[in-house]
Amino acid sequence: AQKVTQAQTEISVVEKEDVTLDCVYETRDTTYYLFWYKQPPSGELVFLIRRNSFDEQNEISGRYSWNFQKSTSSFNFTITASQVVDSAVYFCALSEASTDKLIFGTGTRLQVFP
Amino acid sequence: DSGVTQTPKHLITATGQRVTLRCSPRSGDLSVYWYQQSLDQGLQFLIHYYNGEERAKGNILERFSAQQFPDLHSELNLSSLELGDSALYFCASSVALGGSASGNTIYFGEGSWLTVV
Asked: Which residues contact A97 (CB under 8 A, 6 or more apart)?
């Protein structure tokens, strides 16, 4: 069965600190896709990144970086030099090639204090 | 702005009533998805339409129904509403049939906040 676990319910940091959000997934498929979404206080879900199971290259986008490790079934998200605007709930999601739906984790609420 | 438009943004209604949530997908997207976000269940997939046809169902109650029209907009109908139906309902769209299963990005709208009192 497919499952996404975000063990960190809430993280609080002070501005400029680095923070890593953990995501562990379970799937039996060899082809699958992993996603991160951001949900700011206004409520919308903002797409951040998509990764397929065949591409284990880490990715960096500005202050954001993602570490995908199949050996540990993890797809962690790091924000470098966090800012107050990063405060949001972050969701990790999994989609298997065999089913066309996103399975979301329970989310991690990140609070960045000035 | 994801390009997915949802109306209304907020809705308060009484138990037993019926409401319709509307979604316009991104230009060119043929797939429309509905998700429900509630405090106790988290984000859950409800239903998927592609080019007017139902493609997959998730945890959607029988009191709920959806459709996708020829112009590709979609509506989610919620009837006999209960307090537990209070949630944020998201519409999402993707360009292709495969959606997330083919690695396509699913773009979400801003959601419709439903409060049942």
From this structure: A29, A31, A32, A33, B101, B102
- Output the pLDDT for position B96: 66
Among the partner-chain residues B45, B88, B111, the one whose CB lies closest to the CB of A102 is B45
Location of structure tokens 């998201």: B90
Phi/psi of residue A86, nearest 5 degrees = -80, -10
Q: Which of B100, B102, B113, B114 to mutate to probe the A interface, most A CBs <10 Å?
A: B100
Cβ B77 vs Cβ B18: under 8 Å: yes
pLDDT score of B99 more than 70: no
pLDDT for the residue A96:
80
Across the interface, whether the CB atoms of B2 and A46 are under 8 A apart is answered: yes
Q: What 3-state class would DSSP assign to B92?
A: strand
pLDDT attached to residue B89: 98
Would you place residue B95 in the very low, low, confident or very high pLDDT band (cuts 50, 70, 90)?
A: confident
Q: What is the pLDDT of residues A6-20, one digit of tens each?
A: 999 999 999 999 999
A43 to chain B: nearest residue by CA?
B110
CA B83 → CA B13, B19, B79, B115, distances in Å? 10, 14, 12, 8
